[in-house]
User: What shape does this take?
Amino acid sequence: MKWITRERPKIDRIACPWLIKNFVDKEAEFIYVPAAQVFDKAAELQAIPYDIPGAEYSHYGDHCTFDYIVQKHAITDPAVLQIATIVRGADTASFHLAPQAAGLWAISAGLSYNFTNDHEQLAIGMKIYDALYSWAKYVQAEKHTWDPDLLK
Assistant: This one.
């Protein structure tokens, strides 16, 4: 299936493709267009619009599009549920929801600044979300340690 959203992605417009590809539709294709063209292009290309007001897949209340996808597709993976809180915190500037939210926002903003090609940004963003998932699923209990004796 094709999925379409606004160009110049940040948090949700990178996180949602990662979630869709990994938990909803492995063959998904993502399209970025100017905001004013999303619904016309969606009809033309038979694509599902997401993360734009007026789309089914969008923000509801204080929840972001990532949350909507998790709920709609009954995703119960505990690591994904933890990531949903982080994404929501980053995407809605509610950094108090998770300590990682502000860092995810910073990485996303920097990624958007460094890459003008939306698909190149998506490819790199997918790797960032793969790493976040691995952290949440496998290594979040791991603690950073620094042994000053190593320098002696």
Residues 89 and 95 are 5 Å apart (CA to CA). Residues 2-140 form one domain.
